[in-house]
Each structure stands twice: as C-alpha cells, then as structure tokens.
Amino acid sequence: MMVTKKLLVLVLVSVITFNLVSGNVWLDVPNEAFDSALYDEVLDEELCEEQLAFISSDILLAAFFADAGFRIPKGVLEGNFVDLGNYHQCLGLNQQLPTSELQGKYCMIEVPLNQDFDIPFNYGYNTSFDVRTLPLAEWEENVKKYNSMKTAMLDMSGYHRSSADSPLANIALRLAVCIPQSCTTKQALSSLSTTSGLKYTDEFCRLPNDKPWVPADIVAIVIFSIIGLLTILSTTYDVWQQIILKRDPKSVSVLSTAFSVYTNGRRVMNFTSSGGNIGCLDGIRALAMAWVVLIHTLTTENTFSNPMEIVEWVQTWKSLWMTGAHITVDTFFTLSGFLVVYTTLGKFTGKQLIKNVHLFWLNRLLRMFPLLAAVSLWEASFLNRFGDGPQWHVVAGHVEGCRTNWWSTITHTQNYMNPWFLCIGPTWYLAVDVQLHILSPILLFWVLLGSRKIALTALFGGLAAILTAATTYNFIKDFQPFLMGIDPMYYFTTYYVNTLTRASPFFVGMIFGYFAKTFRIKLQKWQVVCFWVLALSLSTFILYADHATRFDADQTIANLYNSFIRPLWALFIGSLVYMCNHGYGGPINWFLCLSVWKIHSRLSFAIYLIHSGMMFAINHWSITTVYFTVSAMTYKFLSHYTFAFIVSFFAVLIIDAPFTTLFKLMLGGGAKKPQPQKKEMDVESPQKEVLE
C-alpha cells in the first residue's frame, strides 16, 4: 500500500504542477480555409473609381449593390446588432463593363456605437435611425451575459472576434456591405454621402471561389476513395458468397468481408441482448448523447435576432432542461470508469494486467482511432466545401483547427496543447478520458489482487486523493461556476477540459464498477422506494445548484460547486446503474433497457464526433439571423440529431466496423472461430467503449 500511496502522490503532484505552470503550444495555420492572397490581388484603386462611377450612373445596378447590404439590423431593440445583408446576391453580382468585369465582394464591418451617425432604414428612404437613442444602459447586464456566451462558443470554434475580459467595450453594429471586388471598404464607403465620417473596422471580406484546394483535400479524396472502393469490393464478394452461392457465413473469409456493408449492417442492426450486458447502459448512453446534441443546438446557432430574450429565458427555471445539459459529459466519465473495472475484474490478475498493460492501452486507442482520424480529416478538408454563407468564417475556424492541430487530436493531448483552438470541439472529452485510462492501471493493479479490503482502500483512497487535489486547485484558481460567465475561455481552458478537475466522476465510476461486480445486496420494497426518492432528489438538487450558481455566486460557493457537483452527479449515475443491474430498477430499468436504445448506443461515439462540425456548418450557412423560440430550438434539435444519426450510421458501417474487425485480426481476436454464443456476445458488447 505504501507503493500505491507514493505513486498517487507523485501523479497528483505532477498533475497539479503541470496545471499551474503549463502553457499553450501555438502553431501557424499551414493552409488557411480562405485564400487571403486573393483578396489583395483583386484590389485596384483606379479600377475601383471607374467601377464606382459606373454604378452611380446605373440606378438598377446601384440598387442591387445597396440591397445586398448595409442597413439597420433587425431586432436592435431586442439586442441584435448584426445584419448579414444578402450574401449570395452580393457574390452573384457579375456584369461585364466596357473595359472591365464588375464582380461583387461581400464584407462585414464593425461600427462602434460610441459615435454620431445615422443609418438609413432601407435603400431609397430618407427616414433614419439614430443609434444614440438606444437605451444601452438598461441592457448592460444582459448584453454582457449574451456576449460572454457567444465569445465562449466562437473561441472554441477557433474564431476570435472580441475580448472576453470586457465584453461591453466592443459593442458595435456588425453590418454587411456589398462593394466591387477591386475596392477596399474605405474607398467604396467614402463615396456614399450617408456614411461620410463613419468610424468602423473591417472584419472580413469574401469573394467567389475563395476556398483554395490544399493537400488535406487531396489526402481526403484519396483515402475516402480507397475506403469506398474496398467497401464496394468487399460487399460484392460478401453478397456473392452468402446470398447468391448461399455459403455458410463461417466459411467465408473474415478479412474479405471486413468492409462489407451487408455483414457489418447485420451486426450493427442486431438487437438481441446477451447475458453479459448491463442493459440500462444503452439507454443511459443514448439519452446522455441526445442531451449533448440538445445543448449544442443552442450554442452552435448562428446570430439570434432577439438575444435579450435568450438571456432572460436562460435565467428562468424553464431553461433547466437545456442549460443543465453540460453536466451530462460527466455521465460518460462515470460510465468509462465503471466499465474499466467491471470488464476487467475477473479476466486478469494484477500481474497479468501489468504484463499486458500495453495491450490494455492499445485496445482503447485503436477502437477510437479510425473514426476519430476520419472525422478529423473530414473537418480539415470537405467540411470547408460543405456549404457557404455570411458566417462561414466560424466554420473556417473548425477547418483551420483541424489543419493545424490534428496531431494533438489523435494523440489525445489537445486539452493541454491547444484547448482554445480545438479540432472537433467535443473531443476534449476523449483526451481527458484517454489520459484517465492511461493512469487507471495504478488503481486497477490493487483492485485485481483479489483482496476486497485492498481494492476498496485503493479505490476510495484514489477518490479522496483526487478530490483533495482538485478542490485545492479550484480554491487556488477561484474559477467562475459556469462556462458562459465573465471569462469563459479562462474557465474552459484551465478548468473545464482539465484532467484533474474532471477526474472525480471517473473514480466514482470505478467504485461502482467494483460494487456491481462483487457486491449484491438484498433490499425490501420500502428500501428500494427510499433509494429512488433519494436518488431523484440528488439529481434535482444538482440541477438546482447548477441553476442557482450560474451567473452570480459567492466565490467560496463557486469553488465548492466546481469541486463536488461532478462527483455528486457521478454518484447519481453510478447508483442508477447499480440498482438497475441488480433488479431494483423497476419501470426505470425497463425504459432504459428498451431495444430502441441499442442502435442509438452503438452510434453514440460516431454521433459525438460528427454532430458538432455538422451543426456549425448547417447553422452558419444561414443568410439571416434566427429568431429564438423554445419550440424552434426543439425542432432544430430533432433535425440535427436525426441527421447526425443517419450520417453516423453510415460512418460506423463504412469506417468503424471494418477497422474494428481488422484490429481484432491483427491482435489475434479473429484467429479462432468463435462459438455462436460467444460470437453473439462479442457483437453485443457495447460496454467495451463508453461512447460506442
């Protein structure tokens, strides 16, 4: 036990030290999502003057340019300071002049509110709107909170626009302008009498066909084409052997059918349960994944036209079912720790684990690698061509994040190397989870020795040590209690994606995994009822505490919240799994064990990787602001989840399932012909991975 204590102390001291002194690694973007050189090449001052003169002489052409941008944002009185103009109309403007070609260029500018100017309501009207009349003082707190929310999400997407330290300092109208591509905004706007003396800063400009082809695109085409060809050949061979020739599936080459959609589809769509499964995990995993997609439906949305209503809604109890969803990630950490112990106990001794620890780690990494690498390559290449729109620079941040930081994603180090510029935003969870798996053999060794006393001492000692270390760290740093607070990126990079602060649910899960495998208790009905009352009360308290501390909380309360709210949620999830697994779940266990959850559970890892980039792309090719309502967000959630489900299904068939078969063959898992029952057991073992 002295060895264990020394190892734990060494690990904890190392982690704390690294958290306190570590910095970020910055790398330049090797291939930008937009061709920045193109924007400089098209500028021509003399040509601009010539084209502006032609536009002023052509009323219809001038109307087209004016109609494509520069007007008062809709919903200013509800806190919206953004007008996106007409992106596609602007870039579609193309007219051959006597001496040149006139092409539209779409630009966004930021116009500070602390100046004197009028903006016309619409082209051709004399009525003006004076921004000095805006009652900003009355909106200060809501504007501050909303800007912090958007800053956090945009920074995580790789797009940096404003400082989180002073969200009110940069309040400005963000306006679209449509100008000739040969002009700068300064030269074009100076020709308009309505904008004379206007103070503004350029944000970005866009041109047609400004997305260059880069090496990542070529690599993606080659790799995905090879996989597609293998899928066609393997499926054809499989169908010929099993359907046309009607051969016994056992006699068909496993390697030749590894990429077969027919065989892999039958496995994925198999709803038969096997005796070694904990059925309720399917429902928990599927519902937790849906909750993740739900919160991202709100936070990945484009620009809202009524942001003040969002902030007001977020501060009410009506929003709890959506805003409390961030706690669901700790569900996955809990299940991960649970399954590490539950699936290992009884299969290995402590010495066997140490001798095969490299295989323990390798199996974990290989099971995640194919889909993770494929989605990283997709976001580095094809995602940039998935769509386009006035807010596409946000998606470009994802693209450039993967072109720059793909290496830290597949090595599971990006929560420390570049947490502010992630490739596949949600994969910070995978980095933390892999790091915890790498450390888990320190405790697993003692758990597998066979002595219940030693196992419990190691497990509870590990939990106590990590809670002590995390609490100490939280009180040193004095974090805010919520991701969308005053300084969201500091909170995100030093707390939210930190292995130390997110480790406690994993340790709680390990304890419940040991209990589920080795302890079975007998309870009377009244005891079961009391348990469920306490468990549901605990979950209610956690959501209440999350809501109560969201924006305004005493620092001591915030530190205690950050230290203990996550292990308490893990306590709820662990108790839920334990009771359902031992026959005390009743209708809750029945619901969580429904066969419908199996397919969702199997696809959850793919959904987790795919949904975020897809949602950002869909939301940011929108050409106008979105009006927020709860019913609209609910509908969009169902749409996003359905689309992510369909894409993930094909990703599992074509990428995940084939490479899983190949890795089993490489590691010896496919050398022997399994018995039918054992094969069924292998097909139905989603517990090997928390998100799979």
UniProtKB/TrEMBL annotation:
Keywords: Membrane, Signal, Transmembrane, Transmembrane helix. The keyword Transmembrane applies. Residues 677-692 have a biased composition (Basic and acidic residues). SMART domains: NRF. Pfam families: Acyl_transf_3 (PF01757), NRF (PF20146). The keyword Transmembrane applies. PANTHER family: O-ACYLTRANSFERASE, O-ACYLTRANSFERASE LIKE PROTEIN. This is Nose resistant-to-fluoxetine protein N-terminal domain-containing protein. It comes from Chrysodeixis includens (Soybean looper).
